[in-house]
Amino acid sequence: MRRSTMMILKVACVATAYAIGACSRTVVVRSSAAPPLPAGATTVSQRLLASPRHGEWAMIRTGADDSVRAWVVYPERSTKAPVVVLVHEIFGLSTWVRGVADQLAANGFIAIAPDLLTGKAPLEGDTLTNSVATAAIRSLRAEDVQRQLEAVGRYGMSLPAAQPRYGIVGFCWGGGVSFGHAVRSPSGLEASVVYYGTSPDMSELERVKVPVLGLYAGDDQRINARVPATDSVMRRLGKPYEVHFFDGAGHGFLRAQDGREANRVAAERAWPLTVDFFHKQLGA
Q: Which of 29, 100, 123, 270 sits CB 3.0–4.6 Å from 215 for a disulfide?
């Protein structure tokens, strides 16, 4: 739950043609404190070790011949919670993604982060090396990925502690996948959040049935080049698509918060938007 904080603002009254002078006054306003950010890549291990929330591995059946392992984190609450499915970066289900899941649980959601590379390459500990993960990602079929994510969503909604609806959020490669999941719009999906992910083909956008939130780094033209056209088509079709660009931030800014100041600022702006969006679309 957010704590109300008090801020003192100096408001300047500027003289106009209809005013006879300038003034300055102090105004007391109340605002809600922003939710804590997920840990960056350099501090996530310590944050996970200190987390009071229950996280566990699950094996989720996603088809007649396949399953995915997933990291599931439960919020500390007395009522049933909506579900958020996290789609990892091109680097696979990393410790950082598990940390984002833990923060989503802290924000009141059941967070499920599936390993979409389950069985595709040998693990080193609980994760893949970046080079191995990147190569394995390129072998995946988009239809298989979406089918598995739909199964993960059904699994999440079937949990005794869950409400019968879910959202999805993805990062980098996973951001494009999460937008693709909005195109698929399976039963139970209510919202999609895209962190610096590619947009679907324009011809597919008419199939989107859920609101989409797009969060993009300012210094990421490789991804951003298609966003204006995507926005235009979504508007023409009457599809809710909320877009934010964060000046000076680089691709992967939520993970690379320590990389540069603009990344940290972008993370501080993007994460509250994410939590508010899911609260609005999924309930709390």
A: 270
* DSSP-assigned beta bridge partners for residue 191: 167
CA distances from 13 to 19, 123, 143, 211, 226 (A): 10, 62, 58, 39, 42
Of 14-18, 51-55, 79-83, 118-122, the one with minimum mean pLDDT is 14-18
In DSSP terms, which residues pair with 246 in a beta bridge?
217
C-alpha pair distances (Å), 223 with each of 181, 200, 261: 18, 11, 21
Structure tokens at 274: 């994410």
pTM: 0.87
The third-level CATH classification (topology) of the domain covering 35-282 is: Rossmann fold (3.40.50)
Sign of CA dihedral 214, 41, 37, 261: negative
Pick from 98, 38, 81: nearest CA to 270: 38
Length of the chain: 284
Share of the chain above pLDDT 90, in %: 80
